[in-house]
Hints:
The complex is a heterodimer.
Chain A: E1 6-13, E2 16-23, H1 28-35, E3 54-57, E4 60-63, E5 76-78, H2 92-99, H3 109-122, H4 128-134, H5 146-160
Parallel strand pairs in A: 1-5
Antiparallel strand pairs in A: 1-2, 3-4, 3-5
Helix pairs in contact in A: 2-5
Chain B: H1 15-19, E1 34-40, E2 46-52, E3 62-66, E4 101-102, E5 108-114, H2 117-126, E6 128-133, H3 140-145, E7 158-166, H4 169-175, E8 178-186, E9 198-204, E10 209-214, H5 219-229, E11 237-240, H6 257-269, E12 273-276, H7 279-285, E13 292-300, E14 306-316, H8 326-334, E15 344-351, H9 366-384, H10 388-395, E16 404-409, E17 415-418, H11 423-434, H12 439-448, E18 452-464, E19 470-476, E20 482-486, H13 495-507, E21 514-518, H14 535-562, E22 569-572, E23 575-578, E24 581-587, H15 588-594, H16 604-607, E25 630-636, E26 642-654, E27 661-671, H17 678-698, E28 728-733, H18 755-767, E29 773-774, H19 778-791
Parallel strand pairs in B: 1-12, 8-29, 10-11, 14-15, 20-21, 27-28
Antiparallel strand pairs in B: 1-5, 2-4, 2-6, 3-5, 7-15, 8-13, 9-10, 9-12, 13-14, 16-17, 18-26, 19-20, 19-25, 22-23, 23-24, 26-27
Helix pairs in contact in B: 8-9, 9-10, 9-18, 13-14, 17-18
Amino acid sequence: xxxxxxxxxxxxxxxxxxxxxxxxxxxxxxxxxxxxxxxxxxxxxxxxxxxxxxxxxxxxxxxxxxxxxxxxxxxxxxxxxxxxxxxxxxxxxxxxxxxxxxxxxxxxxxxxxxxxxxxxxxxxxxxxxxxxxxxxxxxxxxxxxxxxxxxxxxxxxxxxxxxxxxx
Amino acid sequence: xxxxxxxxxxxxxxxxxxxxxxxxxxxxxxxxxxxxxxxxxxxxxxxxxxxxxxxxxxxxxxxxxxxxxxxxxxxxxxxxxxxxxxxxxxxxxxxxxxxxxxxxxxxxxxxxxxxxxxxxxxxxxxxxxxxxxxxxxxxxxxxxxxxxxxxxxxxxxxxxxxxxxxxxxxxxxxxxxxxxxxxxxxxxxxxxxxxxxxxxxxxxxxxxxxxxxxxxxxxxxxxxxxxxxxxxxxxxxxxxxxxxxxxxxxxxxxxxxxxxxxxxxxxxxxxxxxxxxxxxxxxxxxxxxxxxxxxxxxxxxxxxxxxxxxxxxxxxxxxxxxxxxxxxxxxxxxxxxxxxxxxxxxxxxxxxxxxxxxxxxxxxxxxxxxxxxxxxxxxxxxxxxxxxxxxxxxxxxxxxxxxxxxxxxxxxxxxxxxxxxxxxxxxxxxxxxxxxxxxxxxxxxxxxxxxxxxxxxxxxxxxxxxxxxxxxxxxxxxxxxxxxxxxxxxxxxxxxxxxxxxxxxxxxxxxxxxxxxxxxxxxxxxxxxxxxxxxxxxxxxxxxxxxxxxxxxxxxxxxxxxxxxxxxxxxxxxxxxxxxxxxxxxxxxxxxxxxxxxxxxxxxxxxxxxxxxxxxxxxxxxxxxxxxxxxxxxxxxxxxxxxxxxxxxxxxxxxxxxxxxxxxxxxxxxxxxxxxxxxxxxxxxxxxxxxxxxxxxxxxxxxxxxxxxxxxxxxxxxxxxxxxxxxxxxxxxxxxxxxxxxxxxxxxxxxxxxxxxxxxxxxxxxxxxxxxxxxxxxxxxxxxxxxxxxxx
Lengths: 167, 792
């Protein structure tokens, strides 16, 4: 058997151009985690249901485990690492999770944070019911979601109060 | 004065790292390690005839293929039976790789090691295994019938049998004014942490040492088990639990086959090796829990007081019993909850089936026991036409009866004795919060709108903080940094925060200066693990005791330096000062310098501790009964478990056309003694309730008759999203435990325990017919409705 053919994949991740040579079947989630070593994006099911691998592709939330890295060559991707402010302080959604006890084990958290970050761009003033709907595509086994909903509302509050967020 | 942090909702110290993608979970480590993948049995019961690797060996990137025949020494022996028990007559464990027979779908047969996980999985697909397929045993009825055997050496598929009696329950029931019997079933579910299991091992050939990371609830347990299996001195093995993405019980089992095989392969290949479990593997080769069938006979008086309770139940333990029979033991003891029947008899039989093995899932046998007991109490109330809470109150153990000995032996081998609790007060609080006494008005209002609602109630008592022990280490660095270590592990419980709160208060230092390490055998080698709601009780108290040692030593040394009585000193914000004379003071970090007499000055603070700078020349630099350094280590080992309790109520609406259950309100009253961090305790309750809702209304393991798990993915296993989980309204009672220095009880499992019981109670209340089997889906409820209407 011949070794697998490799393809050069160049993408912009969190504002920085990065590249690696990978097989065509390399999942974007694995590419980010193991080739680019950005392990903030997690893999919980590898069939697109749990949402832990959610990243922002050109600003839109997508499942990293359902996309091949070669398919997004040339695109801009944002991961949870990229939502930290430029001075190293926590971004608004990250801070809201901390302040609202929106995480326990933290494994599903990056997927929630990217999802909510994109959601609040669309709807910066969600009601509680809208916040509940906004996160209904992600699984969490620890929190019972109550404090994640609280985190969404807290993030909206922080945006309103003009707290700094670089992204 | 230093702000007191015990009891405050301090934000978690672990969060900034975890929310910014800087956590380090198992698969975030070892990017350059070799990858393992497993060929697992597609059959529930089969004999392996041949393993053909012809097509697989040419795959580029393949390093090695291993079957049972390749295993060496103790690695080839059966895995250990971790918790033996006299009632476990026929305990059986599997091998790391199947030895001739496979006994459940998912059992590992071949391990493949390759340069990359993709390649390893390619190789797995190219290996051909031929089997003689045997008839499987699936489910409790099948196991009881015993037409087929899971293990040919085990008659009737029975692994364990136990009978316990307090008084003569059968005679008491016979002579009781009223009697009822009930048959009650609970199906399988599973922990399902978002992160599966995983193991990463590095073998250091030069020093002959093994360093091992596992996504585990017990790094000390894994270390000891792996050292034994690989025939290595304990000193040559270290095990670290990195950030762990949830456990809920499944990761307390050890050693998993992979925890033995990955280190074995790393040593054999002299290269780092890693395995990360995928979701399907987690469903079919980790563990499940909950499946039990209960038959109840109960005798009671006109008031609803239980005179005799006779419970016979069957437990499905899956294909193997590596974790013993802890679950039925817990069901049989914790079933009684807050009640005191005049007599009690419990008999259980644990059965082998050709399904994934069964070990504790959060709650561990209690959800089933509480379901059995609470259904019984509801049935008594219905029979006597009494309010359900009134029958409960009449059977409660009263506060003045504490400590209350139930006459049984608990899962830790110690007498089952409740240490404290005020059940009537908890019930009063619950009724008030949920509006129990006004519910009939609410029901009429909804009925007037054509809507059907119901209310349910369920109570439980939970033994927490089981022994044997945990330890704590506290050290003050000369920089003022406080290092704390304990051996048990963390899976999201906020240990880095709550243990820091304890140390901050005990030592009088800012919490920002306290850094906690858990689950790393290099930092604290003696420990048991994180399970049974024990971490806060066990390690919390051990760490408090260690911090008190540090405080005593600091005050003694400061007393010498300040020439005053240590009893006149206090520590505030890291400064030791004379009470009432704050000018006379010395920093705790300076005392750390003085505690360690030095020969060499490596920085400014060290200069102060060199031999020419300090010391009474008439004494040795380190006095005879002392040790250098400002640190302390202590252990907490309780005489018995401490018992937390709680009561839940739920108001539901059932849709007339679809029989869907909508949750209108979910109310929790909870007593876990003194609370270290109410924010974290509430978080634990929220998560527990979510798993209770899941187990009552959504999750089950759908095995077909051939032993195939048909819903082994998150597409088909209905783990609830935010849209299925209610907002929890929680009320707290604090009845301190008299058993430990901090007065705390465990809280981790509480939320999940009464889930099936409280929903069954509410659905029965809404529909009017008996609910005897959980979980219940809309289609099952709809069908039940139709049958009831036809029979009426």
